[in-house]
Design goal:
This protein has 23 helices and 14 strands. By secondary structure, the chain is α/β, with parallel strands linked by helices. Helix 7 packs parallel to helix 8, helix 9 packs antiparallel against helix 10 and helix 9 packs across helix 21.
Length: about 600
C-alpha cells in the first residue's frame, strides 16, 4: 500500500466507526468473495457444452484463445443506447475494447446490456417514477450478465444517474472479479448555464413560449456526451475516479477525441494486467471502508449530487459496509467546499476539468489529510498519488504519459486550494428535527437562503403545487411541503419541475423553501430544499401530519428542520391520506408495484436489495 499522510482526526474517527459497525457484514461479504474466487480461469469450470455455447458466435481466433485458457476473458457490460447523449458514444466501444484486449493477449465479450434511462427526459413525467428503482434493476441485470461465469474481469460502460450505482452494486455481487469503469465523457460546452436558467424562468412566468424554451434547451444539450452541469452523472464520474475504479484523469475527457480513445485502450490494458494472478486486483479489494469515505469526502468537496446520500449507502451495503447519514454529516463538518460548478456556480464540467479538475482536487484533499492514501485502486497498491497526475497523448499519439497536475488552480472561481475554500464545510448537510431526517444541498445557496421560517402550504403532488403557482396563490413567504413522493408512495421521483417556479418567487423577494420526501438530486439549485425526508409520508412520517399554515423552520446552518407544533399535538394528529392508485399503472409503473412495497427508506438507500 502507498504511504499514508496524516489523516484528519475526524476522517479517521468516522472511518474507524464504519469499520467497527460493518465488522460482521464486511467479513461475511469477503468470505463470499473468497468462496467465489477459485483458481485459474473461470471458464475452466464449465463443461464443454457450456463453453461451446458461450463462444459459438466468436471468431475462430477468439474461440481458440478462449478455449486455450491462456489469457483472461473480459466481460463488457454496457448501458449503450443511442437516444441518450451520455451513452450514445458507447455504441462503438465494444469493437474497440475487443481489439485492444486481443493486442494484450486477452479476449472480451459483451456479456450483457443494462437499461439506461434519463431523468432529464422523464423529469415531471410518469416515467420518472421508475427512475430510482432502475438502479436496482441495473444491478440485477449486471449480475445476470456475469452469471455465465465465463469471465476473469469486467468492463463497465455507464455514466449517468442510476446507471453507475447499479453497475457498482452488480459488480460487487461478483466481488472476486477485477473491474474497470470506462466513461465516455461530457459533451462540449454549449449555451451558458445562466442563460439556460433565465429562459426557463421566463417560460415559467409565461413571458416566452415553448419555441424559445426548446431552442435554449437544445443549445444546452446539443451533442453526444454527458450533460455538462454538475448533477448526478458527473458526480458519478467524480466518485468512481476518487474511489479508484477508473483510470486517473479519465472522467471528463470529451467523446470522440484521440485522448478519449487512448484512455479507453489504456483501461483495457490495465484490466488485463489486473486479471492476471501476479497482479490480481478484484473490486472487493478496491471498494473498502476507506474508499467509501474517500467518495463521501469527494462528494462534499465538490458539492455533488444529493442522490448519492442514497446511492453511496446502497453501494456500500453491496460490499458489506454500513454507512449512515450521520457519518456523512460529520465528514461534511471538516471537508471544505473547493469547487463551484453549475448549479453551484456558473462554470460547467469542461471548465472544471480545464481549471485543474479531479487531479487538482485530489492533490489538495490529500495534502490536507482529508483522503485515505493507503487504498488500492485499478492501478494497484500505489494509493491516490497517481490520481494527481494528468494524462496526455505522447508524441506519437499512440499512447499516454502522465504528468503532475499544475501547482495552482487554473481558475480560483471554479476550483480552489484547500487552504482557501469557498466554504469551510461540505456542500451537503443533514437536517434533523421533529419531522425526521433529511438532506439539503447548500453549495448552490446564498447566505439568505440558508434559513427560512414560514407557513407551510401542503401539496400531495408536484402538479398541485404548479397549479397553485399558475393561479397566483403563492405570491408570499411559504414553505412548500410536497409529500407522498417517497420510494414506497411512487418510487421517489425527482421534483426539478418545481425549481423554475420556486426560483421565480424567490427572485420576487419572497422567502421560499421546499420540504419533501421526494428527490431533487445534483441539479438542486438556488432554492433551499430539504429532501429525502424520512420516514416518508406513506410510512406515517411526520410530514404526513403537517397542515397548511403550520410554521416550518429550515435552518441549514444549524442543521434543523422542524414544524413549530408541540410534540403532544403532533402525536395526536392523524396522518393525511392520499389516493395513490394512479401510481400503479401506466408507463410501466404496474410492473414496479411490488418493488415499491419492498423499498427501504431513503436513509437506508431506497433499495429493494438490502
Amino acid at each position: 500500500m502507498a504511504n499514508q499522510t496524516v489523516v484528519h482526526s475526524r476522517i479517521q474517527a468516522v472511518t474507524d466507526r464504519i469499520i467497527r459497525r460493518s465488522e460482521e457484514t464486511r467479513a461475511s461479504y469477503l468470505a463470499q468473495v473468497e468462496r467465489a474466487q477459485g483458481k485459474g480461469r473461470a471458464r475452466h469450470k464449465l463443461s464443454c457444452g457450456n463453453l461451446a455455447h458461450a463462444m459459438a458466435a466468436s471468431s475462430d481466433h477468439d474461440k481458440n484463445l478462449i478455449a486455450s485458457g491462456h489469457g483472461p476473458n473480459l466481460a463488457i457490460v454496457t448501458a449503450y443506447n443511442d437516444m441518450l447523449s451520455a451513452h450514445q458514444p458507447y455504441g462503438t466501444y465494444p469493437e474497440m475494447l475487443k481489439a485492444e484486449a486481443l493486442r494484450n493477449g486477452a479476449t472480451a465479450q459483451v456479456a450483457g446490456g443494462v437499461p439506461a434511462m434519463c431523468d432529464g427526459v422523464t423529469q415531471g413525467q410518469p416515467g420518472m417514477e421508475l427512475s430510482l428503482f432502475s438502479r436496482d434493476v441495473i444491478a440485477m441485470a449486471t449480475a445476470i450478465s456475469l452469471s455465465h461465469d465465463m469471465f476473469d474481469g469486467g468492463m463497465y460502460l455507464g455514466i449517468c444517474d442510476k446507471i453507475v450505482p447499479g453497475l457498482v452494486i452488480g459488480a460487487l455481487s461478483f466481488g472476486h472479479l477485477p473491474a474497470m469503469f470506462v466513461p465516455a465523457g461530457p459533451m462540449p460546452t454549449g449555451l451558458p448555464n445562466a442563460e439556460k436558467v433565465r429562459v426557463r424562468q421566463l417560460y415559467a412566468e409565461g413571458k416566452v413560449g415553448r419555441k424559445e424554451l426548446l431552442e435554449a434547451e437544445s443549445a444546452s444539450y446539443h451533442s453526444a456526451g454527458t450533460c455538462t452541469f454538475y448533477g448526478t452523472a458527473n458526480s458519478n464520474q467524480m466518485l468512481v475516479e476518487i474511489m479508484g475504479l477508473q483510470l486517473p484523469g479519465s472522467s471528463f475527457i470529451n467523446p470522440g477525441t484521440e485522448l478519449r480513445d487512448a484512455m479507453n485502450r489504456a483501461a483495457v490494458k490495465q484490466l488485463v494486467q489486473n486479471s492476471e494472478p501476479s497482479n490480481y486486483t478484484p473490486i472487493a479489494k478496491i471498494l473498502t471502508e476507506k474508499a467509501f469515505v474517500n467518495g463521501i469526502v469527494g462528494l462534499h468537496a465538490t458539492g455533488g449530487s444529493t442522490n448519492h446520500t442514497m446511492h453511496l449507502i446502497a453501494m456500500a451495503r453491496a460490499a458489506g459496509i454500513q454507512i449512515t447519514w450521520q457519518d456523512m454529516a460529520e465528514l461534511s463538518e471538516v471537508v471544505p467546499l473547493l469547487c463551484h460548478v453549475y448549479p453551484n456556480g456558473t462554470a460547467d464540467i469542461n471548465h472544471f476539468a480545464a481549471a485543474g479538475g479531479m487531479q487538482y482536487l485530489i492533490r489538495e484533499l490529500l495534502g490536507a489529510g482529508l483522503l485515505h492514501n493507503d487504498v488500492a485502486t485499478v492501478l494497484g497498491d500505489s494509493g491516490m498519488e497517481p490520481y494527481t497526475y494528468d494524462p496526455f497523448l505522447n508524441e506519437d499519439k499512440d499512447g499516454l504519459v502522465w504528468r503532475p497536475t499544475a501547482e495552482e488552480s487554473g481558475n480560483p472561481d471554479i476550483i480552489r486550494p484547500a487552504a482557501d475554500p469557498f466554504s469551510s464545510h461540505g456542500g451537503l448537510q443533514l437536517l434533523k428535527g421533529n419531522l425526521g431526517n433529511s438532506v439539503i444541498k447548500v453549495s448552490a445557496l446564498k447566505t439568505p437562503q440558508l434559513k427560512v421560517k414560514a407557513p407551510a402550504v401542503v401539496f400531495n403532488s408536484q402538479d398541485d403545487m404548479l397549479d397553485a403557482f399558475k393561479a397566483g396563490k403563492l405570491e408570499k413567504d411559504f414553505v412548500a411541503v410536497v409529500r407522498f413522493q417517497g420510494p414506497q408512495a411512487n418510487g421517489m421521483p425527482e421534483l426539478h419541475k418545481l425549481t423554475p417556479s420556486l426560483g421565480v418567487l424567490q427572485d420576487r423577494g419572497f422567502k421560499v423553501a421546499l420540504v419533501t420526501d421526494g428527490r431533487m438530486s445534483g441539479a438542486s439549485g438556488k432554492v433551499p430544499a430539504a429532501i429525502h425526508l424520512s420516514p416518508e409520508a406513506l410510512e406515517g412520517g411526520a410530514i404526513a401530519k403537517i397542515q397548511d399554515g403550520d410554521i416550518v423552520e429550515l435552518d441549514a446552518e444549524a442543521g434543523v428542520l422542524k414544524v413549530d407544533v408541540s410534540d403532544e399535538e403532533l402525536a395526536a394528529r392523524a396522518p393525511a391520506e392520499c389516493d395513490l392508485s394512479a401510481n400503479n399503472s401506466g408507463m410501466g409503473r404496474d410492473l414496479f408495484v411490488n418493488m415499491r412495497k419492498l423499498a427501504s427508506g431513503a436513509e437506508t438507500g431506497g433499495s429493494i436489495l438490502f
